Amino acid sequence: MPDYRERKARGPFSDGAGPPLVHVQGPGRRSFRFLRSGTGATAIEYALMAAVVAITAFAGLRLMGGEAGALWNTAGNSIIRSMQRDTTP
Fold first, then answer.
1. How many domains is the chain built from?
2. What are the pLDDT digits (tens) for 8-50?
3. Is there a contact between 10 and 16 (Cβ–Cβ < 8 Å)?
4. Which long-range contacts (CB under 8 A, 24 or more apart) does 50-59 make?
5. Alpha-carbon gap, residue 63 to 74, rounded angstroms
6. What is the pLDDT of residues 58-75, one digit of tens each?
7. Measured between alpha carbons, how far is 40 from 34 in angstroms, rounded to an integer?
8. Which of 13, 26, 40, 62 could bond 35 through an S-S bridge, CB–CB 3.0 to 4.6 Å?
9. How crowded is the C-beta side of 58, counted as CA atoms within 13 Å?
10. Residue 58 is part of which domain span?
11. CA atoms within 13 A on the CB side of 25
């Protein structure tokens, strides 16, 4: 029976299946450090604010898009009718 350290190194399962529990080194380690720093938190906050603004703008355009299109169609049809009345003898 392997001891605790050996089982932990192999994974959570006794047969060694699953990813080994090792420390991340290299570029992956730097990305975690970025998230812990103040600049990482600020970047995430700005990204979340931009996402909220984009979703709100999209929803507003989606809700009012049909009404704006109908308004432009009505205005265009009025202009066409007025031009047709002026050209008839």
1. 1
2. 555 555 555 555 555 555 555 566 665 666 777 888 899 999 9
3. yes
4. none
5. 19
6. 898 888 877 878 888 999
7. 5
8. 40
9. 6
10. 4-13+20-87
11. 3
21 close to 11: Cβ distance less than 8 angstroms: yes
Tell me how far apart the alpha carbons of residues 46 and 60 are, in angstroms, rounded to a whole number. Answer: 21
Angstrom distance (rounded) from CA 13 to CA 11: 6
CA pair distance 33, 48, nearest whole angstrom: 20
Contact yes or no for 20/10 (Cβ under 8 A):
yes
The amino acid that residue 64 corresponds to is M
Q: At what angle do helices 38-87 and 27-36 cross, to 10 degrees?
A: 80
Contact 54, 62 (CB under 8 A): no
